[in-house]
């Protein structure tokens, strides 16, 4: 990998990390800045279990709703891989999520829930840096094929 490609890959990974850190802080303004603006065409987002959301209005509204209904969220990213193709970058990762909803019965925080999601984030390079074009998160519902194969020898 050339130095320029390595620099772009690092910049994409930093933009990807910034996205998750902004979610953890509930920073709607930063989330908004990290997505492409309308001049680059429609953006899209699929949250686990949701239909496809298209356009800045729908996508950003979904993040506002998630942040309004989540008192605590933390992402531990694993298996992060960055692929570059010109002004487009693809990031795949596993989101190990710990979240808590509204508190009940006077508690400081509601019950914490863990969730495993695999995500694909597509970025485009702009004059202002790498911006998210599309996010797709899918829940992990089954064990990996390797573990199943070990449990069920032929």
From TrEMBL:
- Pfam families for this protein: SnoaL_3 (PF13474)
Outline the extent of the SnoaL-like domain: 12-140
Which InterPro entries does the UniProt entry name for this protein?
NTF2-like_dom_sf, SnoaL-like
Top-rank lineage group of the source organism:
Bacteria
User: What name goes with this protein?
Assistant: DUF4440 domain-containing protein
């Amino acid at each position: 990998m050339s130095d320029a490609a390595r620099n772009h890959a690092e910049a994409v990974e930093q933009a990807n990390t910034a996205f998750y850190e902004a979610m953890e802080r509930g920073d709607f303004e930063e989330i908004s800045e990290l997505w492409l603006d309308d001049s680059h065409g429609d953006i899209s987002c699929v949250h686990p279990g949701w239909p496809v959301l298209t356009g800045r209005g729908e996508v950003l509204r979904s993040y506002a709703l998630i942040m309004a209904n989540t008192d605590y969220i933390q992402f531990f990213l694993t298996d992060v891989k960055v692929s570059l193709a010109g002004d487009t970058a693809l990031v795949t990762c596993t989101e190990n999520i710990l979240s808590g909803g509204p508190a009940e019965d006077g508690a400081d925080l509601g019950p914490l829930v863990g969730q495993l999601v695999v995500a694909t984030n597509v970025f485009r390079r702009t004059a202002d840096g790498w911006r998210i074009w599309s996010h797709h998160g899918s829940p992990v519902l089954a064990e990996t094929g390797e573990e199943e194969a070990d449990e069920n020898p032929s």
